[in-house]
């Protein structure tokens, strides 16, 4: 028997159950991973609350983890039992001691990336990779606005942007989070719970405004974000920490300066094995070079997944959070 977290109905963190299961054998094309560390992500909360529907209930939760391959299904050639691996995509169920998933979503870890670092950075780091290198292929010299800059994705973005020579203005909700974002390389910070973000961006950029805005807060920041952009520039809406952006009248993009908008996801960018491997190479290079260091702000036991999610949802975490089986 092994432990896993599952939920049979959507709701608050109380719906998460810590149960015993017999780990399934991998089907053809699948592998079973014995998790050493599991990544906690805001998307896990969207599935638990029902904002994103789980394919069926009861359901496992979580899509990010790292550990050791424990069993290999028929037809899998790039992995074998004992390999150190990580993953950030695939079926819900990473909140578990053992997770079975398609082998083509699983990558081998370089020797210099340990399991905790991998679990804390696969989903978030690959997200930063596509956002900074693909959604907007930044070259250096641009000014960008990044909301929630002291969070998991934000902490990686601050460092990666600095390495690219991009001026990242990060929003945060406290002086402590501002300090953290600056120590990670944010060019400037704005406390969006106290300051007028549009005015501060105008001051900081001498009226030029931003080349790209990266907004994962969603409902609360949508309009402010549009107002921080240069004419004909790009709004990247990639999350809903405060609730989903709904009911958008496209005319607003005209009114705010002939803007472009995109609503991307990791699965939309790492959609082939080749693309996943290319993105992982870029991420592992950034980790290996020391240009991006992963800040694991919190560690929780797997059994305390609900407590960990409550901390993330109530803005008490900084950097990445991992669950330990
Ligand atoms: N589309 C994709 O491919 C993709 C992939 C990964 C993550 N994401 C998104 O990126 C965002 C960051 O993910 P993460 O896991 O690294 O989380 P996180 O940034 O560590 O935590 C979310 C942060 O959002 C801020 N926030 C603002 N308003 C909030 C509210 N009403 N409730 C809760 N938090 C609020 C908080 O920072 P302050 O206290 O500083 O405001 C909080 O710490 C999430 O929206 C997630 O869905 C998207």
TrEMBL record:
Keywords: NADP, Oxidoreductase. PROSITE patterns: QOR_ZETA_CRYSTAL. One of its GO terms (molecular function) is quinone reductase (NADPH) activity. CDD domains: QOR2. Its EC number is 1.6.5.5. InterPro entries: ADH-like_C, ADH-like_N, ER, GroES-like_sf, NAD(P)-bd_dom_sf, QOR-like, Quin_OxRdtase/zeta-crystal_CS. It is an enzyme of class 1 (oxidoreductase). This is NADPH:quinone reductase. It comes from Billgrantia aerodenitrificans. The lineage of its organism: Bacteria, Pseudomonadati, Pseudomonadota, Gammaproteobacteria, Oceanospirillales.
């Amino acid at each position: 028997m092994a432990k896993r977290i599952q939920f049979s109905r959507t709701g608050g963190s109380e719906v998460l159950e810590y149960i015993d299961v017999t780990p399934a054998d991998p089907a053809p094309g699948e592998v079973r991973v014995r998790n050493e560390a599991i990544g906690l992500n805001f998307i896990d909360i969207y599935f638990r609350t029902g904002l994103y529907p789980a394919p069926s209930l009861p359901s496992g939760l979580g899509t990010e983890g790292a550990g050791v391959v424990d069993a290999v299904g028929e037809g899998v050639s790039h992995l074998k039992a004992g390999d150190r691996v990580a993953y950030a995509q695939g079926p819900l169920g990473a909140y578990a001691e053992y997770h079975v998933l398609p082998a083509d979503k699983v990558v081998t870890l370089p020797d210099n990336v340990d399991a905790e670092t991998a679990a804390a950075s696969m989903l978030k780091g690959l997200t930063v990779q596509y956002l900074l290198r693909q959604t907007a292929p930044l070259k250096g010299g641009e000014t960008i606005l990044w909301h929630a800059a002291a969070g998991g994705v934000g902490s990686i973005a601050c460092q990666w942007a600095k390495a690219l020579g991009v001026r990242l203005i990060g929003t945060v909700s406290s002086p402590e989070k501002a300090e953290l974002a600056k120590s990670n390389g944010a060019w400037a910070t704005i406390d969006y719970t106290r300051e007028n973000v549009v005015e501060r961006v105008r001051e900081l950029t001498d009226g030029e405004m931003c080349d790209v805005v990266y907004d994962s807060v969603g409902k609360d920041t949508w309009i402010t974000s549009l107002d921080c952009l240069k004419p004909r520039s790009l709004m990247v809406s990639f999350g809903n920490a405060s609730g989903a952006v709904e009911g958008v009248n496209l005319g607003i993009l005209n009114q705010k300066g002939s803007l472009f908008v995109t609503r991307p996801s990791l699965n939309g960018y790492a959609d082939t094995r080749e693309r996943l491997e290319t993105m992982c190479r870029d991420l592992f290079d950034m980790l290996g070079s020391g240009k991006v260091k992963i800040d694991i702000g919190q560690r929780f036991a797997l059994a305390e997944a609900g407590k960990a999610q409550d901390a993330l949802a109530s803005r008490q975490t900084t950097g990445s959070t991992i669950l330990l089986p």
